[in-house]
Amino acid sequence: MTKLRKALRTFVLLGACLPVVLTPVLSAKATPNYNVTPYYNPICNCCILVGEVMHEIFWGTGLWTTPDDFQNEFYIRDMFQDRFEPAMKQMTDSFRAIILTNALMIGAFIDGQAELNALASVQKLNAQTIKDYQVSDQICRFGTLSRSLALSDDKSRTVQMGLMSQILNRQLMKDNMNSGDAGEDGTTLGRSADKKGRWKQYKQKFCDPRDSNRSLGSSTAAEKCETTSDTQLNRDIDLTRTLDAPKSLEINFDEASPTLTKDEENIMALGENIYAHDLSLNLGRSDLLRIKQNGSDEQIRKLVDFRSLVAKRSVAANSFAAYAGMKAAGGASSKTYLENVAKELGLSSATDMKALIGDNPSYYTQMDFLAKRLYQTPQFYANLYDSPNNVGRQQAAIKGISLMQDRDIYESLQRSEMLLSTLMEVYVLKQQDSYFAKGMKH
After folding, report:
1. pTM of the predicted structure, to 2 decimals
2. Are residues 223 and 118 in the same domain?
3. Comparing 420 with 38, which gets the higher pLDDT?
4. Cβ-contact 373, 345 below 8 angstroms
């Protein structure tokens, strides 16, 4: 019972307070009548319909239809302008500050992340570039050692054609082509004149007094060696010392003021002893006059046979001229770099350097260094501890050198093919002559 009484007392007190809570603050002009039923019950306030009152207030019905400015006075000014609007402004400012602050922080984090990612990408690419494009001493070697390779190759072709012209002109007995004696220029040429000039050259340049049981070295000999130096002794017959062993020869046929060098003299003398040592009997003026007068088939046949022989011999001599041309003096642009590699191989004296490289390294010498000598140095293998890209560039350079070698081998095989075909023609010609002779007998 005590609890029930307390509950009823609380309910009555709350009911008495409801009109105070629900009654808005109004101006004197817009005060409605609260003292009528059902808004006010002086006994218990139990008949007040709160929801209905609130509905009439907000919708302007019932007792609230009379005050025209209630909405303006209460809703707009008292409720909205004085209370809601300032509060909403403060709330909006607070929300805006919070949102913008969060957005600024998030944006700062995003900007920082983007900047760090960009810097990381740039640094990564920079490191990759340094790794991929760092300077390689080995790559520079391939470039510097081949600096004058093309020029040397062109010079070798010039020497090859020049030697072939000399070999052919000697056999065809052109003017001023006495191979051994320039003093005989302008005189009648032939087999005897050729032998005489070469004999004189032999005594002055190639004669070794110790040969022939010192027959040419004695003071009482009828014919004595006139050589004053041993640098050219027997170079006219020694293929190894004259052509095969040297890497570079002082042979140059494109000079503005040509001078005969010892190497040029040695090579031409060696070629004369190998090819057409005994000159063929060429047709003289009388033979050509006879052809014009009576059209002799025999004389014409001799002339054609002679030229056929010279043509076949030129095929053989071409290999000799090409070999000598490859060792002829080339461009000097790469000489310093060749010497640096030679020093790594253990050569230090000027004599050894000259013997290996020469004054103007030939095409043969430069290819020898690029295809062989370079890989004999320990430095080459040490330089393989390089970036993968630089090692790949070295492989590409070596492949390029290999292609040049393949081309040289191909040209050599072409000359060998020509030699083989010419040899076959000689054998076939012998069979043809034998059958031709049999037909003449019958």
Report:
1. 0.69
2. no
3. 420
4. yes
